[in-house]
Amino acid sequence: MLNPEFIDLLKRLIRAPSVVGAEHSFFRVLQRELEERGAKVTWYEGVLVAQGANPFSAMFSAHIDRHGLVCTGPNEFQYAAFVSANRTDLLNNSVSEQLMNKVTERFNQERVYAYEPWSGVYRGKGVIENGYICEFRNNLIFEVSGLEAVDAGTPVAFEDSLTTNGDRLEGQLDNVITAAALVHLFSLGFKGTAFFTAQEESGKSWRYLLEWFRRFGGTTNRLFVVDTSPFPDTQAADQQLLVLREKDANASFNADSTALLENLCGTHGVSFLYKDHYVEQQNQKLIEKGQSPHSLGSTELGRIIAASNGLVDGTTIQIPTTGYHTMQESASIASVDAFLTILKAVANLPAQEPQPNHL
Fold this sequence. Notes:
The protein is α+β, with helices and mostly antiparallel strands.
């Protein structure tokens, strides 16, 4: 059973825009929520840091950017992550035509709204009528009705809200759901540090985080990065409550930290899957069919470990989801509950949460 205060928090956060490259207004929303819960909040370029009384007791990180559009000219809108990343994916490969076609299909007829990137002030709403690949610029162009007067540089967010569909939470969950979880920890007395990073979807967030550790971290720093993990359908996602990893395409994760999570899952009766093992098994089947294998994926943590020369280490905790990068991304309530349980265990917080007082 999820705490109603967590659900209310998630509902507020999911309605606050945070398009890739235009996250400042969302940082302001987070700052208010965190300071109301007693956290010391400090802004740095690309990362907001919230700390309790014992900052190095436990450290978590969540990225807070979400997919959206950006106005790039008169009545012209492009996919924000591709613009921010200079049309490369998270492995720095050029964005393929196949991926761009998927994106155009994914958001057709979605309702959107423009906002001021610093203040979050509403600038008008519209509907995506069409999307196509511009052959001259090799980039995605979206046609949006209703936002003809918007100036270049204005971010455009998808109109979103949290809904409950049976036993699942639904909305643009990546990655606001895990950010909400870290904020919620401070309601429960969390004394460690939570990092909220920008521009993960364009592959830049790890640099902001690594700069903080180079300036303020200890000699070794154990970090738990929280995120969602996509699966092709509900049946596949529901085979486990949580997703762990031993590695990604960039680096191997800290074995002791990963073993700790595995032991905590066992103690609390939480089923889990190692995503790297899952991908390797799927790849073996693809190879046997003569098809190309998939990448293990690139994560924020893997990039930090690879670049930090031992300064930062750790592992990841992920919520299995379906409908990846759509407005109908969903996670089971049981998975979200298990996720919060393991976060509390890592942070040495009581498993049983106090119930809110209703006046």
